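Notes taken during the Thursday session

The instructor put the following on the board and asked us to keep it in front of us for the whole hour. The protein is Acyl-CoA dehydrogenase. We were told not to look anything up and to reason only from what is written here. First, the residues (394 in total):
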Amino acid sequence: MAKTANTDSDFFGFEELLTEEERNELAWIREVLRREIKPIANQAWDRAEFPFEAIETFAKLGIAGFQFPEYGDGFARRPLFNGFLSVELNKVDPSLAVASGVHTGLAMGSIYGGGDQRQRDRWMPELVAWNKIGAFGLTEPEGGSDVAGGMRTTARREGDEWVLNGAKRWIGNGTFADLVVIWARDEADGSVKGFVVEKGMPGFHASKIEGKIALRSVQNADLSLENVRVPEDNRLQNIENFRDTAKVLAKTRGNVAWQALGVAVRAYELAREYAVTREQFGKPIGGFQLVQDLLVKMLGNITAMFGMVTRLAQKMADGTAGPDHAALAKSFTTTRMRECVSWARELFGGNGIVLDYEVAKFFADAEAVYSFEGSREMNTLIVGKSITGQSAFA
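Then, after some discussion, the predicted structure tokens were revealed:
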């Protein structure tokens, strides 16, 4: 007689490291996402449209304030809890998870970490409430991995204003954001500075990037800045050079590792459910050795990923996590995620390429998660420098 199946993708029970209060809050968030976001996610992805009704749900959940308690509900969530939250968001829809992450991690993180108190008080409350939406403009048409040294967007001081010229590419939320943090090189001293560009400023234009095969609901944009005049009050006062920008990226890179875990978990869950319900040759395909082998390899990857990101969250909490830790986590988890979604799609056979079975979306979205926030190769070089003391960057 067959034993009762263990359907838990968290096979070793990492969620048990959360407090009871944290687990209860996570369960509530999970249910709200399942009820309000999941029903609209696939159609929005198929149409490559952003479902703006999701913003109301995110505001109700209060997730924009979790990392900034003084502007949220006053209760600081631990990095471990925020990691599990990322898993839940990505299990429901990676596109909306990315849109949320751009807003809360990149845009709000830049303003909170790079702005002075006056600037934080000016913008953070509206961003926490989702009354204004943020975006982050770093990547350029000719500068991805090399954007630090090859940044072409410029800033020129003229009295109490700065004049920005240049272009940015792949800017999530860029088509509708109210505030876009633009990184530009000061013509006077060559240092990189951050500026909050507001919707409607003359000379600032955004156009949607079409034809994407991944994260289709994310409204990525090409941005152009033609003599955009930004007041000095909109220059992030605590940003002195690109190293300050890198501090923001190091934090969000760790979140991408959790995001990769969420994508892998959902692909595994879909594959396991399909394996025990899809019948061929007179029985569920989950009873065949080769299918079980795929599922177990996926579960092994997921368990290893859980272990790495959990430890990363613990190190973030105690202040011992470095950029190399985040880089290794991002590189490792996105590689394992890519394997998992590939095996999941393989298990579905022909059904794995249509949106009806959902796994196709995660298979496609994984390619974007694998690429952004530093490619595997660039993150490898960050870790390589850490462990050898030798820089292999070109």
